[in-house]
C-alpha cells in the first residue's frame, strides 16, 4: 500500500492574525461564472489511428463552446474521475472544477486564509472563472487527486536524498518506487556514495554510485507503467569532483552503442520496443553538477581534483578540459549528461542554513532541499494580450496573487509519499508558478524570439510574475505566518529577494509594452521587499518554468513553457470529426501588428499554408522574417538563441527552466562545449541539449533534404520540377504480401486520370525502427512520383536488390523475391506499367510467362481497344478478390509534428505516443502527445 502522510498532520496555529481580503477581477457579484459561458455537449472518442482501436470513449460530456476538441478530449480522458459507464463518472468540466476548487476554498476558510466567507466566495468564483476560461492550470496531480478518495497528492516534482549506506540506498529504491507508482518523477544526487576507488570498512572496494544506478534503473523500468496516469521520470545527478564521474558520464553513451549493435542485429530497440528493456540506464536523465572552480579550470586549461567522499582527500587529478570534452562528447552521442551549475544554483538559494541544493526534479526546473516536493501551476500568457496589443498588467497581477494563494493552501491539505518529504515541504512550502504561451505571445506582438526585444519582454513578464508571487507570499506570512524554516534563513532569504530586485533594475526595455510591464515589476519588487522585511515570507520558493505538456494542451496553448512556436503550421481536430492543417492564428495577428494590410496578410498566410515558411512570401519584408522563426523548419532558431532566452529570464525565477536546447545533426562536440560554457557564463542553473538523430530509440530521419544544386549564373533561369499533388479522394489498392514469411501491406494510390502517385508500406511492428524507415522511404518515393520521376526508374533501381528476408512469396505472379524491395517494385510494375515497358524489364505475370513458354506472344493479351481498357480499368477494383486487410499507413498528418514532417520532407526526431500512436511534440525537456495528452515525463 502506498505510504501517505495526512494533510491534517502538523498544521500550524493561526493565532489572532486577520485573513485576506479578496477582490473581484473577472466576475460580477450575484452572477456565477458558469452562467456567463455557453456550454455544449460533445462526444469524446479517441482512437489509435494506426490500428483503428478505440482507446477511450465517453459521450455527452459538457464543456464551454470555445474549448478545442483536443482540450476536451484530454481533460475528459485524463482528469475526469469515476468508473466509465457509472453515475459516479464525471461528465462535465463544471464537476471537475467544482471538485478541485471546493477543497481549496474549504481549506482556506478552515485555516484562516480569508477575512470572511464573502472573501472565500469571491475566491471561489474567481478561481473557477480563470480555470474554465483557460487562463491558468494547476499541475496534473491536482486534477487527478484533489477532491477524490485517493491521497490528496498535489506535487508533480520530488527531490530525494541518498547517504553512503546500504539502508539509505534501499530506502531510495523504495521511495522512488512509491513516487513512480503515483505517476510523478523524482531526482537525486548520488555524490555521497563512495566511489569504486575507495575502500569499505571491511577492507573491500566500494561498488560506486553507477552500480547502484543499475538497480534503480531496473526498478524504474518495472514500475513506470504501473502509474495510472502517465509514465514516470527520474533524474540522477553526480558532482563533477566525484572519482567515478568519468564512468557516470559515459554510462548512457556506452548503452547507446549497445542499442545500435542490437538494432543492427535485428532486435526491436525503438522506444517501447520489446528488446529495449535489455539496455540499462534508460529510465533516467543524467546530469553532472559542475562548480565554478571546475568551469574556471576549463577556461584556463587547468587541472581539477577528484575527491574521496568520506574524507575529501584527492583521489585523482584530471585535465578539466578533457573531462569537459568527455561530457560534451557523450551528450553529442546520446544527449546525456546534462549540466547543472552548482554555485549559481546555491547562490540563489533562500535556505542555505537548512542545507545545500544538490539535485533537481527530472525536468530540471525544481531545485530545492533534499526530501522535498513542489506543486506547480502555469499561466496562459496569451490570455493577457488585449485586442489593442497591450499587456493586461493589472489582471495578470491579480491572477498571480490568486494562484499563489491557492497553491499555498494546497500544501496545507496535501498528502505526501513519505514522512520526510511531508515534513520538509510543510516547513518550507515550495511553490512553482510559471507560464506557457510565451512563444505565441512574442510572435503575436511582433517580437522575434531570438531578439533583444523578445528577451526584454520575456524578462519583464517573468520578473513581474515572481515579484507578485513573493509579495503575495509576504502578505500570506502576515496572515497565516512565515514558513517554519524562515527564521533560521531570514537573512539569506532577504538577500536573494534583493538579488531578484537588482536583476529587475538591469532590464533594458525597448518599447512601450515591455516598459509598462517592467514598471509594474519594479513596483512589485519594492512592495515585496518592504512587506517581506515586516512579515517574512510564507514560501521558500515561488516560481519556475515547467514543461506544461498536458496542461498546456488543456489550456489550448500554442507553445509550451518558455518554448518558441514549433512551426508556423499546426494540426487541428474539428468538432464533429475530421481535421485540418492550419496556419497558426498568431501569424495574422503578428502581421497586423507589423503594419501589413488585410490583403497582404491573406497573401502571406496563403503562402505559409503552401510552403510552411515565410521566406520569399509575397510582400513580406525580409527584416520581418525573424519574427516568424520557429523551433523547427526553414528558419529554425539557433541553439544560442534558446540559451540567450533562458539567460534573460533565469534571474527572475526561484527555480530553473525545463528546456532542451535542440541542435542540428551536423552540430559538433565543440558546439556543445560552447553551449555548456555559455550557459555557465550567462548565469543559467541547468542546461540540457539534444542533437537531432543522436538516439536510436527515435524515428529515423531517413528522408534528408536534398543538397542545393550550385546556383547557375545570374542570367540563366534554371527550370524546376513542379509537384502534381494527388486529390484528397483518389483511387487506391491495398496489397497484402508475404516474403519468406515476413508479412507486409502496401497501399498504392493513383491519379484519377491514371498514373501512380503515392506508395505507403507497412512492415513489422508499427513504431519500430523498421516502420519508421519505411514511412520515410514511402514518403520519398511518393514525393518523387509526384515530381515526375517515372515509376520504371524506381523499378530498374530496386528489382533484384538482395537482402533478407528473401525467398518464396504468396503472390502467384511473383513466386520468388530476392528481397522485400524486389517484390514491392515488381508488384508495382505489374499493376501500373504497360506490358511493353515491363517486357523490357523482364517483369511478367504468371499468365504472360505461361504464354511465353508455349511459344505464344503475351502482347496479344494487351491488344484490346481503348474502350476495352477503360472498361477493364473501371471494373478492376470490383472484380478483384477481396483480401483480408489491416489499416494501411496513412498519408495524412495526425499531429502538428507530422504536419511539420510533411512540410520539411523529413521525419522529425520525436517519439511516437505509446498510448495512441501519434507523433509527440517537444514540451520543455519532455514530449507531449497532442492526441491524448500523454507525456514522456513530469509536467
TrEMBL record:
Q: Function of this protein?
A: Catalyzes the reduction of ribonucleotides to deoxyribonucleotides. May function to provide a pool of deoxyribonucleotide precursors for DNA repair during oxygen limitation and/or for immediate growth after restoration of oxygen.
Name what cofactor the protein needs: adenosylcob(III)alamin
**By what name is this protein known?**
Vitamin B12-dependent ribonucleotide reductase
What are the residue boundaries of the Ribonucleotide reductase large subunit C-terminal domain, all occurrences included?
Answer: 155-690
Please report the organism this UniProt entry assigns to the protein: Actinomadura miaoliensis
Q: Which UniProt keywords apply?
A: Cobalamin, Cobalt, Disulfide bond, DNA synthesis, Nucleotide-binding, Oxidoreductase
Organism taxonomic ancestry: Bacteria, Bacillati, Actinomycetota, Actinomycetes, Streptosporangiales
**Which stretches of sequence are listed as region Disordered?**
877-903
Family to which this protein belongs: Belongs to the ribonucleoside diphosphate reductase class-2 family.
Concerning CDD domains, the annotation shows: RNR_II_dimer
Amino acid at each position: 500500500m502506498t505510504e501517505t502522510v495526512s494533510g491534517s498532520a502538523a498544521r500550524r496555529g493561526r493565532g489572532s492574525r486577520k485573513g485576506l481580503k479578496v477582490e473581484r477581477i473577472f466576475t460580477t457579484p450575484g452572477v456565477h461564472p458558469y452562467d456567463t459561458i455557453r456550454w455544449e455537449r460533445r462526444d469524446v472518442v479517441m482512437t489509435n489511428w494506426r490500428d483503428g482501436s478505440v482507446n477511450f470513449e465517453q459521450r455527452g460530456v459538457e464543456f464551454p463552446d470555445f474549448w478545442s476538441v483536443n482540450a476536451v478530449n484530454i481533460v475528459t480522458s485524463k482528469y475526469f474521475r469515476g468508473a466509465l459507464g457509472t453515475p459516479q463518472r464525471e461528465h462535465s468540466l463544471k464537476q471537475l472544477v467544482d471538485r478541485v476548487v471546493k477543497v481549496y476554498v474549504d481549506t482556506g476558510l478552515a485555516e484562516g486564509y480569508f477575512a470572511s466567507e464573502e472573501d472565500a466566495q469571491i475566491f471561489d468564483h474567481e478561481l473557477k472563472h480563470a480555470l474554465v476560461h483557460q487562463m491558468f492550470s494547476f499541475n496534473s496531480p491536482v486534477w487527478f487527486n484533489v477532491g477524490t478518495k485517493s491521497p490528496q497528492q498535489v506535487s508533480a516534482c520530488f527531490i530525494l536524498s541518498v547517504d553512503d549506506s546500504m539502508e539509505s540506498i534501499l530506502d531510495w529504491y523504495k521511495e522512488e518506487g512509491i513516487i513512480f507508482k503515483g505517476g510523478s518523477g523524482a531526482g537525486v544526487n548520488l555524490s555521497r556514495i563512495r566511489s569504486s576507488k575507495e575502500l569499505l570498512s571491511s577492507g573491500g572496494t566500494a561498488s560506486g554510485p553507477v552500480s547502484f544506478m543499475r538497480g534503480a534503473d531496473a526498478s524504474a523500468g518495472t514500475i513506470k507503467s504501473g502509474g495510472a496516469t502517465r509514465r514516470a521520470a527520474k533524474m540522477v545527478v553526480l558532482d563533477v569532483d566525484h572519482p567515478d564521474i568519468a564512468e557516470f558520464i559515459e554510462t548512457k553513451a556506452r548503452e547507446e552503442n549497445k542499442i545500435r549493435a542490437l538494432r543492427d542485429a535485428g532486435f526491436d530497440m525503438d522506444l517501447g520496443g520489446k528488446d529495449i528493456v535489455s539496455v540499462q540506464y534508460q529510465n533516467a536523465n543524467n546530469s553532472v553538477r559542475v562548480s565554478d572552480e571546475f568551469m574556471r579550470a576549463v577556461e584556463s586549461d587547468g587541472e581539477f581534483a577528484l575527491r574521496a567522499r568520506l574524507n575529501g582527500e584527492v583521489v585523482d587529478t584530471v585535465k578539466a578540459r578533457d573531462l569537459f570534452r568527455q561530457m560534451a562528447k557523450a551528450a553529442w552521442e546520446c544527449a546525456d549528461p546534462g549540466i547543472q551549475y552548482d554555485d549559481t544554483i546555491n547562490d540563489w538559494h533562500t535556505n542555505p542554513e537548512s542545507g545545500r541544493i544538490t539535485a533537481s526534479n527530472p525536468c530540471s526546473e525544481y531545485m530545492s532541499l533534499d526530501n522535498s516536493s513542489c506543486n506547480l501551476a502555469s499561466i496562459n500568457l496569451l490570455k493577457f494580450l488585449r485586442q489593442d496589443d497591450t499587456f493586461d498588467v493589472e489582471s495578470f497581477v491579480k491572477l498571480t496573487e490568486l494562484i499563489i494563494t491557492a497553491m499555498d493552501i494546497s500544501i496545507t491539505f496535501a498528502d505526501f509519499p513519505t514522512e520526510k518529504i511531508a515534513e520538509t515541504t510543510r516547513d518550507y512550502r515550495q511553490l512553482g508558478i510559471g507560464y506557457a504561451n510565451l512563444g505565441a505571445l512574442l510572435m503575436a506582438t511582433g517580437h522575434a524570439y531570438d531578439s533583444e526585444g523578445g528577451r526584454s519582454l520575456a524578462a519583464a513578464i517573468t520578473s513581474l510574475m515572481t515579484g507578485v508571487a513573493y509579495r503575495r507570499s509576504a502578505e500570506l506570512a502576515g496572515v497565516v505566518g512565515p514558513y517554519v524554516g524562515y527564521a533560521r534563513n531570514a537573512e539569506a532569504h532577504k538577500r536573494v529577494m534583493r538579488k531578484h530586485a537588482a536583476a529587475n533594475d538591469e532590464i533594458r526595455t525597448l518599447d512601450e509594452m515591455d516598459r509598462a510591464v517592467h514598471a509594474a515589476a519594479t513596483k512589485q519588487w519594492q512592495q515585496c521587499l518592504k512587506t517581506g522585511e515586516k512579515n517574512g515570507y510564507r514560501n521558500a520558493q515561488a516560481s519556475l518554468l515547467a514543461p506544461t505538456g498536458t496542461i498546456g494542451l488543456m489550456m489550448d496553448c500554442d507553445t509550451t513553457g518558455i518554448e518558441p512556436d514549433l512551426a508556423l503550421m499546426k494540426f487541428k481536430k474539428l468538432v464533429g470529426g475530421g481535421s485540418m492543417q492550419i496556419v497558426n492564428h498568431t501569424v495574422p495577428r503578428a502581421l497586423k501588428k507589423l503594419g501589413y494590410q488585410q490583403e497582404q496578410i491573406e497573401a502571406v498566410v496563403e503562402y505559409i499554408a503552401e510552403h510552411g515558411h515565410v521566406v520569399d512570401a509575397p510582400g513580406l519584408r525580409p527584416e520581418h522574417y525573424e519574427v516568424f522563426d520557429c523551433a523547427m523548419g526553414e528558419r529554425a532558431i539557433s541553439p544560442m538563441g534558446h540559451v540567450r532566452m533562458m539567460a534573460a529570464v533565469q534571474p527572475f525565477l526561484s527555480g530553473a527552466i525545463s528546456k532542451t536546447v535542440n541542435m542540428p545533426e551536423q552540430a559538433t562536440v565543440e558546439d556543445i562545449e560552447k553551449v555548456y560554457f555559455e550557459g555557465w557564463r550567462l548565469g543559467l542553473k541547468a542546461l540540457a541539449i539534444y542533437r537531432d538523430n543522436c538516439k536510436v530509440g527515435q524515428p529515423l530521419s531517413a528522408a534528408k533534404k536534398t543538397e542545393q544544386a550550385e546556383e547557375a549564373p545570374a542570367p540563366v533561369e534554371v527550370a524546376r520540377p513542379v509537384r502534381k499533388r494527388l486529390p484528397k479522394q483518389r483511387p487506391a489498392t491495398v496489397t497484402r504480401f508475404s516474403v519468406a514469411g515476413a508479412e507486409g501491406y502496401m497501399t498504392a494510390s493513383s491519379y484519377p486520370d491514371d498514373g501512380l502517385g503515392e506508395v505507403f508500406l507497412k512492415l513489422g511492428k508499427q513504431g519500430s525502427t523498421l516502420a519508421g524507415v519505411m514511412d520515410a522511404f514511402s514518403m520519398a518515393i511518393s514525393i518523387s512520383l509526384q515530381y515526375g520521376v517515372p515509376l520504371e526508374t524506381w523499378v530498374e533501381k530496386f528489382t533484384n536488390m538482395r537482402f533478407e528476408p528473401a525467398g518464396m512469396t504468396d503472390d502467384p505472379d511473383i513466386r520468388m523475391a530476392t528481397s522485400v524491395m524486389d517484390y514491392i517494385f515488381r508488384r508495382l510494375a505489374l499493376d501500373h506499367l504497360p506490358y511493353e515497358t515491363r517486357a523490357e524489364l523482364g517483369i511478367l505475370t504468371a499468365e504472360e510467362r505461361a504464354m511465353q513458354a508455349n511459344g505464344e506472344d503475351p502482347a496479344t493479351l494487351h491488344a484490346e481497344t481503348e474502350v476495352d481498357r477503360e472498361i477493364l480499368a473501371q471494373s478492376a477494383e470490383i472484380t478483384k478478390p477481396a483480401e483480408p486487410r489491416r489499416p494501411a499507413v496513412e498519408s495524412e498528418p495526425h499531429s502538428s509534428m507530422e504536419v511539420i514532417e510533411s512540410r520539411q520532407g523529413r521525419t522529425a526526431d520525436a517519439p511516437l505516443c505509446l498510448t495512441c500512436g501519434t507523433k509527440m511534440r517537444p514540451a520543455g525537456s519532455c514530449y507531449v502527445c497532442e492526441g491524448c495528452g500523454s507525456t514522456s515525463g513530469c509536467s
